[in-house]
Specification:
Order of helices and strands of chain B: EEHEEEHHHH
CATH architecture of the largest domain in chain B: Roll
CATH topology of the largest domain in chain A: Aldehyde Oxidoreductase, domain 4
Distance between the termini of chain B: 43 Å
Number of strands of chain A: 28
Shape of chain A: globular
Oligomer: heterodimer
Distance between the termini of chain A: 75 Å
CATH class of the largest domain in chain B: Alpha Beta
Number of domains of chain A: 3
Helix content of chain A: 25-40%
CATH superfamily of the largest domain in chain B: Beta-grasp domain
Number of helices of chain A: 20
Strand order of the largest sheet of chain B: 2-1-5-3-4
Number of helices of chain B: 5
CATH topology of the largest domain in chain B: Ubiquitin-like (UB roll)
Largest sheet of chain B: 5 strands, mixed
Helix content of chain B: 25-40%
Chain lengths: ~775, ~150
């Protein structure tokens, strides 16, 4: 009898007991004998030449162990930080962990002080003397590439990092020219600051006797840290460098990248022969965690006489900040332009992107990374076009959906969508919201002068970027596979080592569900280990909603190899031929004679005793898999929001939020729902509140949790979620990704809802975020007319 | 300066710098690393503890201000190996993902339920204003607190 399936069950997380009792181990919790503390001195200017950086007085402060400048590091063999995605003709400025000649953004490190205590290090930091020659700064992406703008880097003339395009320009131009109607809109997708609750931290410990360096770091991908930092920056080979990402308190993309601070503590630990720890203050998180989004876009959607979209033309300026963060070039190009077909059949699309350097914090992947920008654009344009045509936005979308019969579907912007069926998710969302009833309520409210709005976003997401060969041809400096190792112990208990990393996703639970199910073992017999390069063969980590689809598939494949070897051993013990052995529910048995069987534990023990193995078979029972998926996976769905806007205050009240997602087969529905909730909160926050604002001189004026509006519990409603299930054909479990769907859909859904509410006033568009001040100003503008 | 505190039922006497923050005293001197520092400026609530039964943000108090106080941190909440209903609620209702805000969230809710044992959803959401979570969208945190309130009746 097969046991109850774990795959698909909302079982409680095995991670939780340590977190709810205060027994988690985050990087800042790690304590080593003789450890020291690093404090960085940071530029208060957005653009300044460093005339003099003098750390001599800092060195004399009691409790200070050492102080270093950028020149100490470059003289000590530390190379610039690498860029992990290269586009044709891209300009890569030299990104030093500590600035040597110029500071290019507020928060750019200019010195580091290391103390016996963090307090002593801070005293030392106050004693560092820096003579700045302040230069003019530019913070806006479009202004940066205009003539006469202050120039950041000598090797990037005009502050242009790259020019990139996708799609057929001539065909798109012709289709726009010949269209019955063209709707144009300029759209700002504002800069966001990730704000994982755990500030970044790193602790390096170099052992001079062995030459081994160990780094604990808040990383979503410890092997990638080891590879990039070891090989490119520090010149330490992998076998002498161990990176541990212990419990990590949220990432949302911001902990993918190699940052200056972990480079500095690693080098300093070697220089001093003592462990060095650095933990960001929130102020530093705001200034130095890679930011997200920041696009200025001109978009045109063209339709024919029967309201079918015939073309989409897009020009985007992507503000990349002062330097190229690790994967910065990828985000506004291959993760953005390729998603512009959305869930719609659009015969031709053309997208041009200019990547610009500005005197701001570097920008890189933030939850969704390119895909929320694309979805916001496509879904805002659909709404604007539907409004221009006098059509219901739902009917406009339905009319333009890619029909279920056309999968696999080749878009005009490179992707081939593997599977999809967009109608049922839309229908289910409409049913949950009771769309017609809410429209009737909206009409009634409007008659009373109240502003109710309904917003829709039908989205597609590409996640689990793949395959490696294609990524390499497009500029990736890494592969996009994942590894897993499954070790069966002589007792039949199982350790699963995964290159994926959990920083809230719950892999210790979901991967154990997957593995225990495949092996027919109790959940308790399987342990999942992640986050340590010394334990796990290799790994690409967790980002782009790839863990289940890529990391999970690696686990699945390794287990298939375990079962294969187990069958050989069982066949030998049962004196049957290997082809006659089946495996189910923890037992190897002879087909047709379930009584002739060996348990998984019997076979495991024999694999290690090796007293009676088939001739030529090696002892032991473990398998490693490197799974390189053939394609991305493509989750999709429809989100609906109902809002009421108070015209006199500009305040938006969220009345309802409905999300229907198709993330393929689901391992643990409770965990997927949780990620969807969190994703919605972040996307709603982009629509309504969050905004990284720089003043013209380059000061981040939203540089604390007082000024940057992270959502609080009473800003948000409870969410209503449901799913449709279209299994993905690209991995053996049929799973897709679920970590970013909420963020990708919700910004557009909310923005569309607010603008639907404001439609009776003749307001068609307001740029994000739709804060009370902006809405109030727009409403006042209509009253003056 | 010399301070005497009782933390989770155990008495400690320590010599501390006057500027040492209470949260660093707990984490670095007493090795109670369950209390986290999320923002240093008392907005995020990750460092929430109970000082003499009142919830307080340990990043905004000096250790010397806690001289003579009784302190409860997340490590002291379970009794004799049995989870507090709030801890149970967060586990049952999936009220945490990365787990970083969780100790502060639980201790903020602890005091709230003492004051309001039968809260509405709106009251719960309002009570959590001083505690930020970036993972859950608060949906399941509300459910966790409702679970605990029910269980504590």
């Amino acid at each position: 009898m097969a046991q109850a399936k774990l795959f698909g069950s909302s079982i409680k997380r095995r991670e939780d007991p340590r977190f709810i009792t205060g027994k988690g181990l985050f990087t800042d919790d790690v304590k080593l004998p003789g450890q020291t503390y690093a404090v960085f001195v940071r530029s208060p200017h957005a653009h300044a030449r460093l005339r003099r950086v003098d750390v001599s007085k800092a060195r004399a402060v009691p409790g200070v162990v050492a102080a270093f400048t950028g020149k100490d590091l470059s003289g000590g063999g530390v190379n610039p930080l690498p860029c992990g995605w290269l586009l044709p003709d891209i300009k890569i400025p030299e990104y030093r962990a500590i600035a040597t000649t110029k500071a290019h953004f507020v928060g750019h490190a200019v010195a580091v002080v290391i103390g016996e205590t963090a307090y002593a290090a801070r005293d030392g930091g106050d004693a560092v003397e820096v003579d700045y020659e302040v230069l003019p700064a530019v913070t806006d992406g479009e202004k940066a590439v205009a003539p006469g703008a202050p120039q950041l880097h000598e090797n990037a003339p005009g502050n242009v990092a790259f020019r990139w395009s996708i799609g057929d320009k001539d065909a798109t131009d012709a289709a726009v020219r010949g269209a019955a109607r063209v709707v144009k809109q300029r759209l700002l997708n504002q800069r966001l600051i990730p704000n994982a609750m755990e500030p970044r931290a790193s602790m390096a410990s170099y052992n001079p006797a062995t030459g081994d360096l160990t780094l604990w770091v808040t990383s979503q991908n410890p092997h990638v840290h080891r590879l990039l930092m070891g090989a490119f920056v520090l010149g330490i080979p992998e076998h002498k460098f161990r990176v541990i990402a212990p419990d990590v308190g949220g990432g949302f993309g911001s902990k993918i990248f190699v940052y200056p601070e972990e480079v500095v503590v690693s080098w300093a630990s070697k220089a001093l022969g003592r462990p060095v720890k650095w933990t960001a203050e929130r102020r530093e998180s705001f200034l130095t965690d890679a930011h997200g989004r920041d696009h200025i876009t001109d978009a045109e959607m063209a339709v024919d006489g029967s309201s079918k979209i015939v073309a989409l033309r897009v020009r985007t300026n992507a503000n990349l900040g002062a330097y190229l963060s690790t994967f910065a070039p990828l985000i506004p190009t291959y993760l953005y332009g390729t998603l512009l077909s959305g869930v719609y059949e659009i015969p031709t699309i053309h997208c041009e992107v200019v990547g610009s350097f500005t005197n701001t914090t570097p920008v890189d992947a933030y939850r969704g990374a390119g895909r929320p920008e694309a979805t916001y654009l496509v879904e805002r344009m659909c709404d604007l076009t539907a409004k221009a045509l006098g059509m219901d936005p739902v009917e406009f979308r339905r009319k333009n959906f890619i029909p279920a019969s056309k999968f696999p579907y080749q878009t005009p912007v490179a992707f081939q969508y593997d599977s999809g069926n967009y109608g049922p998710a839309l229908d289910r969302a409409l049913q949950l919201l009771d769309y017609r009833k809410l429209r009737a309520e909206q009409d009634a409210a409007r008659r009373e002068g109240r502003l109710l709005g309904i917003g829709i976003a039908s989205y597609i997401e590409a996640c689990g970027p793949a395959p490696s060969q294609v990524a390499g041809a497009l500029g990736a400096q890494a592969g996009l596979w994942e590894s897993a190792q499954v070790r069966v112990h002589p007792s039949g208990k199982v350790s699963v080592y995964t290159g994926s990393h959990s920083h809230g996703q719950g892999h210790e639970t979901t991967f154990a569900q997957l593995a225990a199910d495949e092996l027919g073992l109790p959940f308790e017999d399987v342990e999942v280990i992640h986050g340590d390069t010394a334990a796990i063969p290799f790994g690409m980590g967790t980002y782009g909603s790839r863990s289940a689809a890529v990391g999970g598939a690696a686990v699945y494949t390794a287990i298939a190899r375990i079962k294969e070897k187990g069958k050989k051993i069982a066949a030998h013990l049962l004196e049957a031929s290997e082809g006659d052995i089946d495996y189910d529910d923890g037992k190897f048995f002879v087909k047709g004679s379930p009584g002739r069987s060996k348990t998984f534990q019997d076979v495991a023990l024999m694999a290690y005793l090796a007293h009676n193995l088939p001739k030529g078979l090696e002892p032991g029972l473990e398998a490693t898999s490197f799974w390189d998926p053939p394609n991305f996976v493509f989750p999709f769905g429809t989100h609906l929001a109902g809002v009421e806007v108070e015209p006199d205050t500009g305040r938006v009240k969220i009345l309802r939020y409905v999300a229907v997602d198709d993330v393929g087969r689901v391992i643990n529905p409770m965990i997927v729902d949780g990620m969807v909730h969190g994703g919605i909160a972040q996307g709603v926050a982009q629509a309504l509140w969050e905004y990284a604002a720089y003043d013209p001189g380059g000061q981040l004026v939203t540089g604390s949790m007082m000024d940057y509006a992270l959502p609080k519990a009473d800003d948000l409603p409870s969410f209503e979620t449901d799913r449709t299930v279209t299994p993905s054909p690209v991995n053996p479990m049929g799973v897709k990704g679920a970590g970013e769907t909420g963020t990708i859909a919700s910004t557009a859904a909310l923005a569309n809802a607010v603008l639907d509410a404001l439609a009776p006033l003749g307001i068609t568009h307001i740029d994000l975020p739709l804060t009370p001040a902006r809405i109030w100003a727009a409403v006042q503008g209509t009253r003056k007319r | 300066m010399k301070i005497q505190v009782k933390v989770n039922g155990t008495a400690y006497t320590s010599e501390v710098e006057p500027r040492l923050l209470l949260v660093h005293y707990l984490r670095d001197v007493l090795n109670l690393t369950g209390t986290h520092v999320g923002c240093d400026t008392s907005q995020c609530g990750a460092c929430t503890i109970l000082v003499n039964g009142v919830s307080a943000k340990a990043c905004t108090m000096f250790a010397v201000q806690a001289d003579g106080a009784e302190i409860l941190t997340i490590e002291g909440l379970a009794k004799d190996g049995k989870l507090h209903p709030l801890q149970e609620g967060f586990w049952e209702k999936h009220g945490l993902q990365c787990g970083f805000c969780t100790p502060g969230m639980i201790l903020a809710a602890y005091q709230f339920l003492e004051r309001n044992p039968s809260p509405s959803e709106t009251e719960i959401r309002h009570a959590l204003e001083g505690n930020l979570c970036r993972c859950t969208g608060y949906h399941n945190i509300v459910r966790a607190i409702q679970y605990a309130a029910e269980k504590m009746k």
